[in-house]
Specification:
alpha/beta, seven-stranded mixed beta sheet, binds S-adenosyl-L-homocysteine, disordered N terminus, Rossmann fold, two-stranded antiparallel sheet, 9 strands
Length: about 230
């Protein structure tokens, strides 16, 4: 373990249990989601100077003007993807905007088939390192512009977009299986807040339903790679 983290209880089970208790208080109910979040040590994903804040329920800076997602929002998005009249699983999943891999680690605890793309190469390198540290070797990471999805691995049962867009990218909708679900923060470019929106492809494959949920704050989905 990293020396500066030792002794301040950062990795202690109790610190993480408190975070899970807070998520419960905020209304997260799916035990699978709570267990997955509880099993991912968030402090390894943040810079050392911020490690003492890793279990606060806030987004934290990653560098490159990007942020590591807030645990509540990660939990909420995954819970909405899993929610419904019949019990669902994530199935084959694509994450757009892996950042340094925190949400990918949580998703990796919930599905064996996970692909994640990130447009900023140095962040992707960090995601690779962190997921390897957690032995989540089944997560497949790719340096790419997620606006185009991941045609070589499509279709997906689940697509989760960790960056805000004015509309759901058509390529992503087309890469969903029938009854497949996509969640993303929808908002006009420049608006600070967005609406978490869930799209579900109809069973006959033709058309989508759209349901809107909470107000959230995400960095924008940007075109191209760097
Ligand atoms: N999932 C991350 C959140 C990272 S913030 C976590 O768990 O903490 C959102 C990420 O989306 C940023 O790293 C940003 O670089 C990335 N991103 C933005 N537009 C993208 C695009 N078109 N394709 C792939 N990644 C994109």
């Amino acid at each position: 373990m990293n020396g500066s983290l030792r002794g301040i209880g950062m990795t202690s089970r109790r610190t993480r249990e408190r975070m899970i208790e807070r998520l419960r208080e905020q209304g997260i109910r799916d035990e699978r989601v709570l267990a997955a979040i509880g099993s991912v040590p968030r402090h390894i994903f943040v810079e050392e100077a911020l490690a003492s804040r890793a279990y606060e329920d806030t987004a934290l800076p990653l560098g490159f003007q990007q942020t590591i997602s807030q645990p509540y929002v990660v939990a909420r998005m995954i819970e909405l993807l899993l929610d419904g009249p019949t019990s669902r699983t994530l199935g084959k999943t694509l994450e757009i905007g892996a950042g340094c891999g925190y949400q990918a680690a949580v998703l990796g605890m919930l599905t064996r088939e996970l692909f994640a793309v990130e447009r900023i190469e140095p962040l992707l390198a960090r995601a690779r390192k962190h997921l390897a540290e957690l032995r989540l070797t089944h997560v497949r990471l790719k340096h790419a512009d997620g606006n185009w999805g991941l045609p070589e691995a499509a279709p997906f049962d689940t697509i989760i977009v960790a960056a805000a867009a004015a509309r759901a990218p058509q390529a992503l909708l087309e890469q969903l299986t029938p009854t497949g679900r996509l969640i993303l923060p929808l908002g006009n470019s420049g608006s600070a807040e967005q609406i978490l929106s869930l799209f579900e492809r109809r069973a006959d494959g033709k058309g989508f339903s759209e349901t809107r949920f909470d107000t959230v704050r995400f960095v924008p989905l940007v075109a191209g790679v760097e």
